[in-house]
Design goal:
single chain; binds flavin mononucleotide; 200 residues; globular
Length: 200
């Protein structure tokens, strides 16, 4: 098996995250930044923006998320369960990567290339997926686990205000990461015959 295939298999959604991370914050930031910089984007538009939160900023993100959830989850028992998940699976990690689309860049593409205008929103989503998958793999290569969360749009404005982020940035996903405290369970695969075809 190739090293890449092995890495792909090792990348899983890890919900038992911890803070036992040996890399320093600056090198983690550089690693994540360099990984995203090398990902492709339509017309090399680089609409994916990222914010790396560690330390108090990471804690703040998940406190903001809990506050936002408290406002919409009225049932105390349901909220207690949600809080348990946020505290143990996300906040317990070492950091979080926030993935943004810069809508100003996407709108600029629509204007510059009107014949492709209908494609740019979905291509921006593809770019987000490519970037976050690359980071997910790269973190795993560093021995770290991660998962992908979507508390956007519920938390968008509070997060924008907390970290003073541009108005044109639209939050597309949150990736808590940290040490792997427990492995993911086995996962099922659909039969290959239903998904893949080969003609020659
Ligand atoms: C586009 C996308 C959205 C996802 N959204 C969430 C999410 O909001 N919350 C979550 O816990 N996992 C989310 N996941 C993770 C999937 O549930 C997970 O990747 C899938 O079950 C396969 O497990 P694995 O990541 O361990 O291989 C998402 C994955 C993708 C690719």
């Amino acid at each position: 098996m190739s090293a890449f295939t092995n890495l792909q298999k090792e990348r899983r959604s890890i919900y038992a995250l911890g803070k036992h991370v040996t890399q320093d914050d600056d090198s983690l930031f550089e690693t994540i930044k360099d990984t995203i910089k090398e990902t492709p984007s339509p017309f090399n538009s680089q609409s994916v923006q990222a914010v790396v939160l560690t330390g108090a900023a990471h804690e703040k993100l998940w406190d903001i998320t809990l506050d936002a959830l408290r406002a919409v989850v009225k049932d105390d028992e349901a909220f207690a369960q949600t809080k348990q998940k946020v505290d143990h699976a996300f906040k317990a990690g070492y950091g979080t990567v926030l993935y943004y689309t810069d809508q100003k860049i996407v709108d600029g593409l629509k204007e510059a290339f009107p014949s492709y205008a209908a494609n740019f929103d979905s291509w921006a989503e593809e770019s987000i997926g490519i970037a976050l998958y690359a980071v997910w793999l790269r973190l795993r290569e560093e021995g770290l686990g991660a998962s992908l969360q979507h508390y956007n749009p519920l938390i968008d404005e509070a997060v924008r205000a907390a970290f003073d982020l541009p108005e044109s940035w639209v939050l597309r996903g949150e990736m808590p990461f940290g040490s792997i405290e427990a492995p993911a369970a086995d996962k099922d695969f659909l039969p290959d015959e239903t998904r893949f075809r080969h003609f020659n």
